[in-house]
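Standup notes
- DV: blocked on the single-chain target, sequence here:
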Amino acid sequence: MGGGIINSIAGGGTLLTFPALVALGVPPIVANATSTLALWPGSLTSFWGYRRAIEPIRAWWLHWAIPSLLGGITGAILLIYTPEAKFAALVPWLIWGATALFLLQRPIMKWVGGHSGTNAEVERAKPPIRFLAYQFGVAVYGGYFGAGAGILMLAAFEMMGLRNIHTMNGLKNWCGLNINAIAVAVFVVSGVIIWPVALTMAVGAMAGGALGSRMAQRVGQVWVRRAVVFIGLASGLGMFLTRH
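- DV (later): unblocked, structure below
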């Protein structure tokens, strides 16, 4: 539920759910897969909320879905075939990297806000190949671990020429929906999901998302963001020290 609230208000819910599962004794790869499945319903509801915002670029949907799906399945398969010990060694760095991306979110959004306006000619053009290749790389990371992938996508959309923040968020949610859907499918087939935990967390995440949407205008984001950063730094340090 806390992860759903954080995702709704400031993003970064994975930085709470993943370390919590590991702290409870769940192996890192299983914890990552279970957390991804638990939070996926939130990406579905987020996309539904932004569906009208990305209607002007409906012709782009398939263009962005293909690299997102291909990258997501690649990242998920890489995770499944990563030895548990090696992934455990990577975990602190993945968490710290995701925390750094979370810290960069506000400067990036200020930068995007400074360029806000209409999408102009971009809406009528096909996405450049280099940005679709970049999206594939982001999707590989998203399928493998995922926290902070949305920040990387928003930065690329701005560089591509999109200016409407609602359109950008909608496209980000569409890409994330595809990345996580294919990753979840791989995890389910591979049998690395702890279903009672995942389903219970999914209910909590959906409730948290609904509550967070109401809290967003009443709770200062700065305190939520500080809490997420503290959790990310502390959990990464804890896992790093435990690893040794």
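- Follow-up: The chain has one domain: 2-243.
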